[in-house]
Amino acid sequence: MIVQTAAPGQPHFVVEQPDHARACGRLAAAFGNDAFAAPTPRDLFIFTVTHHDEGWVPVDALAEAAPTTGLPYHLTQTPLPYLLRTGKGSPDFNEAHHPFCGLLSSMHTVGLFNGRYGLSDFVFIDRIPAEHKPAADALLAAEVARQERLKAALRADPTTAAWTEDVALFTNYKLLQFFDTLGLYFQLTHAEARRPARFLNVPDGRGTDHTVTVTPQPDDSYAVSPWCFAGDEVEVVTLGRYLRPQPGLADFRAVFAATPKEAQRYRLVPGREEGR
Asked: For residues 227 and 216, what is the distance between their CA atoms, to the nearest angstrom?
């Protein structure tokens, strides 16, 4: 899960990973204008973004609290055996929908362990404790094999072969990372603590990558520059639960289940230099 920061004395907004991905999918569905081409294949791409963390469903359902916080395990604190389970489960789910979805989801899994294919300096595989390294290596080897199998299947069909070309595939991968990290920008940090952020390597579908900036505004909107979405604004909704640390972890699952989900909303608008 994602445990959002909170002001002193305030509850934390806790987001299940599939709800994180649903918000990312809404961003993906809104992407594209005269300057930024919409993803291809659009519907399959949006499906993958919307479900890129589907492997977390059984892990989040455990609703386990971390003994150090009295809150659910935060994304970066999740026990590694659970992460390995999700790393396989998400591509499994997406492959069942379509080979392209399984391929892109598998790339997301491998990228999270290997610095997002060079887009990030954080190489998680290098920090895995020795006792878990064989399992992690086995997961990654299986995902690389999955990718080769799915690429072969897609290349065998003239209607899907172009999707596996290096530029096309990596463009979609970079877009998935953009929507994933943009969703996390809002979900990791409470509103009062959000600061301007830069998102690198956002492809326009025409051969150029851009740095997209997101800047909080006085009216509680967020200015995006360059504007890469359709229309004059985009509203994104994330569902989650407002929870306080539970002393002793007693009946935490019951507390979690009894707490209804609420919505956080984020409004994105074009930056000033684009006429706003």
From this structure: 15
Distances (CA, A) of 197 to 141, 181, 186, 222, 270: 34, 11, 11, 10, 15
Structure tokens at 1: 């899960």
Q: What is the average pLDDT across 204-218?
A: 97
Task: Looking at the chain, list the stretches that DSSP marks H as alpha helix, in order from N- to C-terminal side.
Answer: 17-30, 42-50, 57-60, 80-97, 99-113, 115-118, 133-155, 166-188, 252-258
Tokens matching residue 197: 């952020």
Q: Which helix (H) or strand (E) holds 210?
A: strand 209-216
What pLDDT is attached to residue 275? Answer: 46
- Residue 146's identity, in one-letter code, is R
Confirm whether pTM is higher than 0.85.
Answer: yes
For tokens 């809104």, name the residue: 30
249: left (phi > 0), else alpha (psi -120 to 50), else beta?
Answer: left
- Between these two residues, 246 and 57, which has the higher pLDDT value? 57
**What is the spatial distance between Cα 47 and Cα 25, in angstroms, rounded to a whole number?**
7
Q: Are 164 and 155 in contact (CB under 8 A)?
A: yes
Strands, sheet with 262-270, edge to edge from the N-terminal-most edge strand: 2-3, 12-15, 234-243, 262-270, 221-225, 209-216, 197-203
d(CA 52, CA 142): 18
Contact 102, 95 (CB under 8 A): yes
First to last CA, the chain: 35
- Contact predicate 232/270, CB 8 Å: yes
Q: Are 238 and 20 in contact (CB under 8 A)?
A: yes
